[in-house]
Design a protein that fits this description.
This protein is an alpha/beta fold and 396 residues long. It has 2 domains: 135 residues, Alpha-Beta Complex (Aspartate Aminotransferase, domain 1); 247 residues, Type I PLP-dependent aspartate aminotransferase-like (Major domain) (Aspartate Aminotransferase, domain 2, 3-Layer(aba) Sandwich). It contains 14 helices and 15 strands. β5 and β6 form a beta hairpin. α4 runs parallel beside α5, α4 crosses α9 and α11 runs parallel beside α14. The protein is globular, with a radius of gyration of 21 Å. The structure holds pyridoxal-5'-phosphate. The site of pyridoxal-5'-phosphate has 15 residues, from α4 and α8. The site of pyridoxal-5'-phosphate (PLP) has 15 residues, from α4 and α8.
């Protein structure tokens, strides 16, 4: 054994923090508010649609490479329904690619578009798969840090547009943008997105946008970057059924882009999974056609849970950044006299029977993220209440 088994591209990436913290939850019997998966499945009609597809033999063999036509048409229709008024529509045959979740779509976009040595800008703290996917593509990640800003009542994480502009170099290939943003809950505003768009056009950059929380917006509105002037031709828009329909295990995602860009994504995707989730693709096609009332009810339910958890965490002595979107709350542990989120989260299950995730692991500038931890509120109300009762002992 001369060389260590893990290659140098992945050497810095151990087990994902979610696996580690979920194992800790299982071992200690703590309530898991770490990993972001709902504890109740999505609509019964959608689950039944998957059963029907399986029974009817639809999708049990390799589906077509780009995804089954029914799903690509449903994605196109959903896109027109939600963003058609912004002029953003996609052709189901040439501009939509079904993937194994948004995770594969992001990986394939980076593998297909990035040349070794290219720089990729991502908002920090970033979703953990981004760093690994950029590394696998041979790219260099350039984090731009979101920082807390605003008054006590309205603290949120904010994108510094000057810092973003300064991060662009002659080697920058693309900006990987996530809004609504996990883990901070920030939803970029129209003005911020317009500035990002201008920068991309001015510096001739591509954009890859992760919009998996497009329907989980409580304040403001979700605007796809691709709908801004000059962006449609240079943007790969990514979303997924996991968060929107509470079936995170199905792994049905999609990428949307003009034909030439999408071909590059597809070139990589076909040698990753080739295809995935056959019968689930038919079920997600039905899910996307659910009426607006479904999306509104999901949002209202999660907004109430957000408010419950935010109030409770404040009551437990944490500083809370109320998220405008996603199903995560980021909190600052410094009011408790703590400074190291990783140590805090490792001790939390023993201390009060709750699991949270240290946000530090989503930073390159680790010191910036040290005092922040993330809680997921996509859980039953009784579970959140139980967790909050347990967390009360923190301030005591
Ligand atoms: C959950 C999540 C994903 C993963 O989506 P899948 O469809 O499960 O692959 C991607 N990006 C962000 C920001 C997420 O929170």
């Amino acid at each position: 054994m001369g060389r260590p088994p893990l290659n140098s591209r992945l050497a810095e990436f151990g087990t994902t923090i979610f696996a580690e913290m979920s194992a800790l939850a299982a071992r200690t019997g703590a309530i898991n508010l770490g990993q972001g998966f709902p504890d109740v499945d999505g609509p019964e009609s959608v689950r039944e649609a998957a059963v029907r597809a399986l029974r009817d033999g639809r999708g049990n063999q390799y589906p077509p490479g780009p995804g089954v036509p029914e799903l690509r048409e449903a994605i196109a229709a959903h896109q027109s329904r939600c963003y058609g008024s912004l002029g953003l529509t996609f052709d189901p045959d040439t501009e939509i690619l079904v993937t194994a979740g948004a995770t594969e779509a992001v990986a394939a976009a980076l593998l297909g578009l990035v040349e070794p040595g290219d720089e990729v800008i991502a908002l920090e703290p970033y979703y953990d798969s981004y760093a690994a996917s950029i590394a696998l593509a041979g790219g260099t990640r350039v984090p731009v840090t979101l920082r807390p800003r605003g008054g006590a009542a309205d603290q949120h994480f904010h994108l510094d547009l000057d810092e973003l502009r300064d991060a662009v170099t002659d080697r920058t290939r693309l900006i990987l943008l996530n809004t609504p943003h996990n883990p901070t809950g920030t939803v970029l505003t129209r003005d911020e997105l317009a500035a990002v768009a201008e920068l991309c056009v001015e510096r001739d950059l591509l954009a890859v946008t992760d919009e998996v929380y497009e329907h989980l917006v409580y304040e403001g509105e979700h605007l796809p970057l691709a709908s801004f002037p000059g962006m449609r031709e240079r943007t790969v828009t990514i979303s997924s059924a996991g968060k929107t329909f509470s079936f995170t295990g199905w792994k049905v995602g999609w990428a949307m882009a003009p034909p030439e860009l999408l071909k590059a994504v597809r070139a990589a995707k076909q040698y990753l999974t080739y295809v995935a989730s056959g019968p689930f693709q038919y079920a997600v096609a039905e899910a996307l056609a659910l009426p607006d009332t479904y999306y509104a009810a999901l949002r209202d339910d999660l907004r109430a849970k957000r408010d419950l958890l935010a109030d409770g965490l404040r009551g437990a002595g944490l500083e809370v950044f109320t998220p405008s979107g996603t199903y995560f709350i980021t909190a600052d542990i410094r009011p408790l006299g703590e400074t190291d989120g990783t140590r805090f989260c490792l001790a939390l299950p023993e201390r009060c029977g709750v699991v949270a995730v240290p946000t530090q692991v989503f930073y390159d500038h680790e010191a910036e993220g040290a005092p922040f931890i993330r809680f997921a509120f996509c859980k039953r109300t009784a579970v959140l209440e139980d967790a909050l009762t347990r967390l009360k002992s923190l301030s005591g």
